Amino acid sequence: MNDPTFDPKMLEALICPLTHATLQYDAEKQELVSKPANLAFPIRDGIPVMLVDEARTLE
C-alpha cells in the first residue's frame, strides 16, 4: 500500500458523532476538526477515527 491519504470528498458524508456538526479537514495534523464539540478526530492510514474517546480536545 502506498501512503494512504484521506480523501477530502469524505467530508460530505461525515459529521461529528457528538454534535452532528460538519467537520473541517486539517491536512497538516491529519485530523477532522469539530469546532462545536471542541474536538479533533485523528486520521490514521487515511481512515478517520470517529470515536469520541480517540479524539483530542482542542486548545
Care to give the gist of this entry?
With 59 residues, the chain is mainly beta. 0% of the residues lie in helices and 29% in strands. It has no helices and 5 strands.
Give me some keywords for this one:
mainly beta; 59 residues; globular; 29% strand; 5 strands; N-terminal domain of TfIIb
What's the layout of helices and strands?
Blueprint: E1 24-26, E2 31-34, E3 39-44, E4 47-48, E5 56-57
Antiparallel strand pairs: 1-2, 2-3, 3-4, 3-5
CATH class: Mainly Beta
Rg on CA atoms, Å: 11 Å
CATH topology: N-terminal domain of TfIIb
Structural class: mainly beta
Backbone shape: globular
What's the count of strands?
A: 5
H-E order: EEEEE
Structure commentary:
It is a single chain. This protein is mainly β. It has a single domain, classed as N-terminal domain of TfIIb (Single Sheet), CATH 2.20.25.10. It contains no helices and five strands. It has strands at residues 24-26, 31-34, 39-44, 47-48, 56-57. Strands 1, 2, 3, 4 and 5 form a five-stranded antiparallel β-sheet that branches. The chain is globular and about 30 Å long. The model has no long low-confidence stretch (mean pLDDT 93).
